[in-house]
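User: Structure please.
Assistant: Input sequence and predicted structure:
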Amino acid sequence: MITRRTLLKTTAAAYAAGFAIPALAGSARIKVGYVTPQSGPLSAFAEADKYMVARFLDSAKALGLDVEVIVKDSQSNPNRAAEVAKELISRDEVNLILVASTPETTNPVCAIAESEEVPVISSVAPWQPWFIGQQGNPADPASWQEFDYAYHFFWGLEDNVSVFLNMWKSLDTNKQVGALWPNDGDGNAWASEVGMPPAAKTAGYNLTDPGRYQNLTDDFSAQINAFKQSGCDIVTGIPIPPDFTTFWTQSAQQGFKPRIVSIAKALLFPESVAALDDLGHNLTAEIYWSPAFPYNSSLTGESAAELADGFSKSAKRQWTQPVGFTHALFELAADVLKRASDPTDSKALVEAISGTNLDTVVGNIRWGKDNVPPFARKNVAKTPLVGGQWRRKSDGTFDLVIVENANAPEIPLGGTLELLG
């Protein structure tokens, strides 16, 4: 019989060689490991890391917690993510791991931590590619098993698909949709039966899917030609930022002009949109956090707007969506460390994590909340998601305006959706 522990060790071995965990040193100091893609094509997700780690350490000191944060760069590479998870556990002897930003970062780190019984809290990856991607047989739901040490908070594909469909139905189109899905954890999940295809079909949309492409592709002519031949009024997908820049620039050069473009992941960041100049105007994306969100930090008491303003003043740059979730990761860490009977003991930390019910700057975090069968997972907490549109201002900068909030009406709208033009 294959046990849960054997299965997770097998999954982890796919990322990195096995290793043993030394006993905790027993010191009063609490060690927290933090893994994000600080370099490589996913580095935009880590823009707020330095600021938020410093804020957390100040807050932890005020709370009387002796905490050290050991930061590791995944280099936007799954293998490297697994390696640094191994280092955190075997060499640095961390008590708790935090990890964020796309399945390519979260999955290998969580698989290593789960297999070695080290508590880990994860975010900024849709929960399906996070959960399903770590199963021994992703194609067989009957074989899926829950995690014991890994917990994740974010929205799911069902939420993002719903937001995009809600935006599209508000405007007049021919319902022909071009799909730009890469060959990675996100792209494969979006293209699957738990992603966009069944929901789009039910809503009356026809998908043109040219197939998976490799990240950092330099020629999207095949995809563009397929979309042109199908007369696609709409384009959707989940490329990494440099790939969408290439695709959208080549689309303009080749005369492909859809009426709505809704892109997950790549259009989260102001720099990615600004790089497109006029071509960035009225592109749409999901918004998982913004200064307009009506939530406050449990750690500092700041509103979303105050948190964004503090980051912008410190970093001398525009706020970015990961600001909220990076902060929320450390909100959870502080809450768990305060409540754990022994914050240096894995079992005590897991008990504290599992009992989380915390109002954070990204909303309430409680595992299993709002999860609906057959997708209910005890170690997943869903967070609100709305739709946004980038608007180019007269000075050349862009604002991300909330234009769709049907699934989270407590988050205020900032405008109405407009066609590309």
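Confidence is low (pLDDT under 50) at residues 1-27.
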